[in-house]
Amino acid sequence: MQSKDLVQLAEKFGSPLYVYDAEKIQSQYNRLTKAFSKVEKLRVNYAMKALSNIAILQLLKEMGSGLDTVSIQEVLLGLHAGYDPEKIFYTPNGVSLEEIEEVSAMGVQINIDNLSILEQFGTKYPNVPVCIRINPHVMAGGNANISVGHIDSKFGISVHQLPHLVRIVENTKMNIVGIHMHTGSDILDIEVFLYAAEILFDAARNFKNLEFLDFGSGFKVPYKKDDIETDIEELGKKLSKRFNAFCIEYGKELTLIFEPGKFLVSEAGFFLAKVNVVKQTTSTVFAGIDSGFNHLIRPMFYGSQHQIENISHPKGKERFYSIVGYICETDTFANNRKIAEIKEGDILSFRNAGAYCFSMASNYNSRYKPAEVLWMNGEGHLIRAHETFEDLLKNQIPLPVAMATV
Ligand SMILES: Cc1ncc(COP(=O)(O)O)c(C=O)c1O
């Protein structure tokens, strides 16, 4: 899709606005499945935490994707979007046994990441097929917040606890059908995936009834011009070979699962915001937009880079700007960024706004969440309406008049 399409969508639906390009999601999905076409049984479970609008879930379902979920609410959304329970995978962390039981009763594949729950669940439901999340103790990921497979991480069951894990499985006679790991996000080096894969194979050798191995995700996508990304094609070549060899050794054709979020939707997303104020100070020129970290928290939260373009006047002379939001505390999207000269009223477009952007949005400062549009077959389809004042009041219960006037 082109910048002029984005400008028209901002005019039609207002700003701020999230726009997702369906074609890009489809091409990323196809790229991944093609890279692993040498694996007989491949399954892609979209990690819906990245972007959970049901229209996006429907789009991916049509392409054959399953879902990776982390909460019972995500499971419910997946079912609502039409996914069969068998196509949904549930990988929670730190949730109650009750929630796991409830999800399991829906027919969804559960993935357990601690020994305490494993023992309790296995004792109560020895016949229910269970997957185990291993922590391979691999330090990987773009920053500390998204590195989740290292030794100090709260995720997964340590590989060093395998003897204890095996004892629980033998004692409860529970049915372990899969082994899972996810070491982090924004992993560039494919050697990290290959190294962690060997740890997963080692763990798998302890279980006789496996049906699948889930390698999680963490593929790095490009954020800046000429940025580097995970070489999916190279990974596909190398990991498929190792995986196929492992299946021969194991004596069974296992399913290889990936659960990408960012890879599928990050680059498909654009966040559009209007410049309210251009403010010159002694040190910089601020462009203040009609949004804030309530709508796109990644720069403030992770220090992440989103390429920003002036799509209203793309040909203007480039100047340096600090792009800031309207939230009542430091709220910086970008510092010292070269952007085509900005006038008040211009629309700025933020790239890589598909993953962990709308799904992390909030109503902080009592602002409405933006609308979402899916660009498909040359047309913009509204897939979430802009919030209204009624949405802010929904579920709030005012004090009875007598109490309020005390
Ligand atoms: C268990 C699990 N799987 C998959 C993902 C998706 O990762 P990414 O968006 O890097 O593809 C995450 C991200 O946090 C995760 O925690």
Automatic annotation (TrEMBL):
Belongs to the Orn/Lys/Arg decarboxylase class-II family. LysA subfamily. Residues 18-354 form the Orn/DAP/Arg decarboxylase 2 C-terminal domain. Specifically catalyzes the decarboxylation of meso-diaminopimelate (meso-DAP) to L-lysine. Substrate binds at residues 298, 302, 329, 356. The active site is at 328 (proton donor). Gene3D superfamilies: Alanine racemase, Lyase, Ornithine Decarboxylase, Chain A, domain 1. Residues 23-266 form the Orn/DAP/Arg decarboxylase 2 N-terminal domain. Pyridoxal 5'-phosphate binds at residues 218, 356. Pathway: Amino-acid biosynthesis; L-lysine biosynthesis via DAP pathway; L-lysine from DL-2,6-diaminopimelate: step 1/1. InterPro entries: Ala_racemase/Decarboxylase_C, DAP_deCOOHase_LysA, De-COase2_C, De-COase2_N, De-COase2_pyr-phos_BS, Orn/DAP/Arg_de-COase, PLP-binding_barrel. One of its GO terms (molecular function) is pyridoxal phosphate binding. This is Diaminopimelate decarboxylase. Its EC number is 4.1.1.20. It is an enzyme of class 4 (lyase). Its cofactor is pyridoxal 5'-phosphate. Keywords: Amino-acid biosynthesis, Decarboxylase, Lyase, Lysine biosynthesis, Pyridoxal phosphate. Homodimer. It catalyses: meso-2,6-diaminopimelate + H(+) = L-lysine + CO2. It comes from the Bacteria.
